[in-house]
Amino acid sequence: MRVHLSPALIRAIAVLLAMALPTAASAQGAVHPDPARPHAGFKPHQLSFETPADGVARAEFRSAPFFAVILKSTSPCGVTEPERLAAQALFPANKVFASRFGCESEPEENVTYTNVRPNFGFLAVYAGATAREAETFLAKVKATGRFPAANVRQMQAVLVYP
After folding, report:
1. pLDDT: is 11 or 158 the higher one?
2. What whole-number distance in Å separates Cα of residue 103 and Cα of residue 9?
3. How far is residue 138's CA from residue 146's CA, in Å, rounded to a whole number?
4. Partners of 154 in the beta sheet?
5. Phi and psi dihedrals of 96, rounded to 5?
6. What Rg do the C-alpha atoms of the chain give, in angstroms?
7. In terms of DSSP H, where are the helices of 6-156?
8. What pLDDT, in 10s, does the model give residues 95-112?
């Protein structure tokens, strides 16, 4: 038995398939959480992730979702690099990162993060790809006794193009 599909039905199927398949525009960059092996092009205080090299103009590109432990919330631009490095020494296998988007001292800062208030700064550490990993890592952070207000947050890093 032979089935005849109209051109309109074929176009409709093609549109539905295109919507269901991931595209370059909806892709997300894999996070590089090992501080010893960052993805090229990122600053020391940023959580690095894979970015597209396709030459397509875009306003922003996001990392894959991940979990972080917020070690400290502060005023915008309130985390210093020595403070970040001291926290990094406590967690050598997990990237410690800080928000500096919009800081006058960092005029070319192009990475921001989702699920945080823009009028606050923060110091955070990568805690894993799953909630279970993050809760386990939170216990490790709490055991240091240095970050009593630490909490888990799911977020994405966002590269904002100029």
Report:
1. 158
2. 53
3. 12
4. 67
5. -100, 130
6. 20
7. 7-20, 81-90, 131-143
8. 999 999 988 887 789 999
